[in-house]
Amino acid sequence: LLPARLKKGEFHMSFKTILAAGIAAASFAGLAAAQDWSLQPTFGTVNLNSGFTPDPYTVAITAGGTIEASNLSSSCRGMIANAPDFRLNFSAGSLPLYISAYSSADTTLVVNGPDGSWYCNDDTNGLDPALAWGSPESGQYDIWIGTYGTNSDLASSTLHISELHD
After folding, report:
1. Nearest to 164, CA basis, from 50, 26, 38
2. Model confidence over 36-53: pLDDT tens digits?
3. What sign has the CA pseudo-torsion 153, 156, 66, 118?
4. Shortest CA distance to 45 belongs to which of 141, 146, 150, 166?
5. Reduced to 3 states, what is the DSSP secondary structure of residue 146?
6. How far apart are CA 68 and CA 65, in angstroms?
7. Across-strand partners of 87?
8. Which tens digit of pLDDT belongs to each residue from 125-166?
9. Closest of 109, 65, 90 to residue 163, by C-alpha
10. Do residues 45 and 143 touch, judged by C-beta distance below 8 A?
């Protein structure tokens, strides 16, 4: 039975409005869990110009996090943090750019490039991930190293940034 103050159509419309609002709120909640490239990187930032030395530039990073990288794209794998692990501000030249990670654990790689696109890799070099740009763009590369496993898995890893093939 409907309350006396509401007509049948009014209740139905009210229910649809509430349902639509709930679906919209759930959709936005999913977006809030995505990686936030605007946050300060956990393990630092470097500015590199083409021809940098030493090559490779390396950084020790604890890989892993609590967010499924597959939320970004079906081609992404692993568990990553919300904030980037590392930020590369790169001034490109005529050389390619290689970003890779090395660990005794199974790691994955997620990069948000200067063009705003997400680039992901898993298991290029055994269980180690690597990405390559033949003609890289200049700009900001935000980098996450993930772990392949549960969200409690963290792993010591080394990030390599190079213009020479690793």
Report:
1. 50
2. 878 999 999 999 999 999
3. negative
4. 141
5. strand
6. 8
7. 45, 142
8. 999 999 999 999 999 999 999 999 765 689 999 999 999 976
9. 90
10. no
| Residue 28 pLDDT greater than 90, yes or no | no
- Bond preceding residue 56 cis, omega within 30 of 0: yes
Q: Which of 104, 136, 148 is nearest to 161 (CA)?
A: 136
* Residues in contact with 115: Cβ distance below 8 Å, sequence separation at least 6, in sequence order: 137, 139
Which two tokens mark 97?
Answer: 């750019």
- The sign one gets for the Cα dihedral 92, 98, 102, 108 is positive
SS (H, E, C) 4-66: CCCCHHHHHHHHHHHHHHHHHHHHHHHHHCCCCCCCCCCCCEEEEECCCCCCCEEEEEEECCC
Residue 94 to residue 163: CA distance in whole angstroms: 10
**pLDDT of the residue at 35:** 74
Tokens encoding 157: 């890893």
